[in-house]
Task: inverse folding
């Protein structure tokens, strides 16, 4: 059975009070529409068609992908009109309609829905709500068969008392669509072409309507304002937290933990409060992450330890290495096994060999640092001349004295030492001591200036 997916995303979203089109508002770091497209792709359809209107240019620019067909709906004349715009591009047996502002829909739910759709049957996703105000109501006959959807604004009192609502998500037989779209009218309370009218048409044509429900009503919750957006965000985060806990992660507080990307985890991982994981993060067994850390696009190998208030981006931490508190690892940082980075140390495009240490107050940029080398407090690589970047290379077992300035390009070979306070501008050969500071001079009998007391 072939599948086309149409995502309706042309609406304005006035209640967001935003210059950003509604479907571009983020949940967990990805736009709502991005989430829907991600789910759509997992169903491996022959086509994904996104109906856009408000902010179309921006939506298209942000989400462009080879597998996406954007369809313009210049005027938002209703959900039926929106689907009709995509009609010329549709050719599959089944057409699945999704909403660009309903981001938490789960793939298994859609698979269950699609299993109910055939040439002779529609699949309709419904949700039973305590308060279905605003939703189209599912009207059933005496045998419980669905006969129609009535929009809230068109419903009589009896129909308004129905608690089963239309989620808007449905699977339709493609062969019938052109006929049904051609017969839609806007003769209703809102003067719109309602997609929901196809239900009564299908029943009149002798088709059956089979319903399916999501496991969790939040899957079909849309976001019309920022309050609902925040609810979706918290729900998404709790879902992610539970998924990770099920895989062997201890979260000190699942309510104070955020994932904005794709995280894979090993077992016996410990994550303290207020940790944000962004982008692609790989966390192996026995990793420990302290409170208030932001970790983006990183790989943390077995047993790595990140202490409180550290910020990591594009870094790889080797087995048993540690960083922080207050460490900053910038893109291109690689710590080999058991390397140690302490407080107020910034690394960028820097490689610390096995067991190498930079314990305090340093900037190490564009640096290659050998195994077991010790970087004294306050050491700075001077890697930038205002126009170009240069590299600092250190061999194994080097000892850099505190407050050294290493003016790149420069090399300090294995076993060499630099004296504290040195400004190193030349290569230091293996085993040598480099002293590059002015000699101390003591002036005896020196008199400090004295303040003159005002009368
Ligand atoms: C729709 C359903 C209603 C359902 C509800 C669930 C119809 C007629 N009604 O109502 O039964 O209970 O969703 O939230 O379908 N859109 C377009 N172009 C348009 C109009 C809408 O792309 O011309 C898109 C919107 O961007 C949105 C989706 O379609 O993503 C739904 O539109 P919305 O206006 O929210 O529909 P409702 O009136 O709430
Ligand atoms: Ca709506």
Result:
């Amino acid at each position: 059975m072939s599948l086309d997916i149409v995502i309706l995303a042309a609406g304005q979203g006035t209640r967001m009070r935003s210059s950003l089109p509604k479907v571009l508002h983020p949940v967990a770091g990805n736009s709502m529409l991005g989430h829907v497209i991600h789910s759509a792709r997992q169903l491996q359809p022959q086509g994904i068609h996104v109906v856009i209107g408000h902010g179309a240019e921006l939506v298209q620019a942000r989400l462009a992908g080879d597998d996406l067909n954007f369809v313009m709906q210049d005027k938002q004349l209703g959900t039926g009109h929106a689907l009709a715009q995509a009609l010329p591009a549709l050719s599959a047996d089944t057409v699945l309609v999704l909403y660009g502002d309903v981001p938490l829909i789960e793939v298994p739910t859609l698979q269950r829905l699609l299993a109910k759709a055939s040439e002779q049957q529609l699949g309709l996703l419904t949700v039973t709500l305590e308060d279905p105000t605003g939703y189209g109501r599912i009207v059933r006959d005496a045998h419980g068969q669905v006969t129609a959807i009535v929009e809230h604004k068109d419903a009589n009192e009896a129909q308004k008392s129905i608690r089963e609502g239309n989620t808007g998500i449905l699977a339709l037989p493609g062969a019938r669509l052109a006929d049904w779209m051609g017969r839609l009218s806007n003769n209703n309370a809102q003067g719109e072409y309602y997609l929901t009218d196809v239900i009564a048409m299908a029943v009149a044509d002798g088709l059956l309507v089979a319903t399916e429900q999501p496991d969790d009503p939040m899957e079909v919750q849309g976001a019309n304002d920022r309050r609902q957006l925040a609810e979706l965000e918290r729900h998404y985060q709790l879902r992610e937290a539970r998924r990770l806990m099920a895989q062997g992660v201890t979260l000190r507080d699942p309510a104070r933990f955020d994932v904005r990307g794709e995280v894979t985890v090993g077992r016996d991982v410990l994550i303290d409060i207020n940790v944000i994981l962004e982008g692609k993060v790989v966390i192996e067994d026995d990793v420990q992450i302290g409170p208030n850390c932001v970790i983006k696009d990183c790989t943390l190998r077995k047993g790595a330890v990140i202490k409180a208030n550290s910020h990591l981006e594009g870094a790889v931490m080797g087995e048993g290495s540690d960083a922080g508190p207050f460490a900053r690892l910038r893109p291109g940082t690689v710590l080999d096994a058991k390397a140690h980075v302490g407080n107020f140390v910034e690394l960028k495009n820097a490689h610390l060999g096995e067991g190498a240490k930079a314990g305090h107050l340093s900037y190490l940029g564009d640096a290659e640092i050998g195994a077991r080398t010790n970087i004294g407090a306050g050491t700075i690589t001077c890697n930038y001349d205002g126009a170009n970047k240069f590299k600092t290379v250190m061999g194994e077992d080097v000892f850099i004295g505190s407050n050294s300035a290493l003016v790149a390009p420069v090399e300090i070979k294995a076993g060499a030492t630099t004296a504290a306070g040195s400004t190193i501008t030349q290569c230091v050969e293996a085993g040598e001591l480099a002293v590059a500071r002015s000699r101390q001079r003591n002036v005896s009998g020196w008199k400090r200036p004295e303040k003159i007391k005002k009368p």
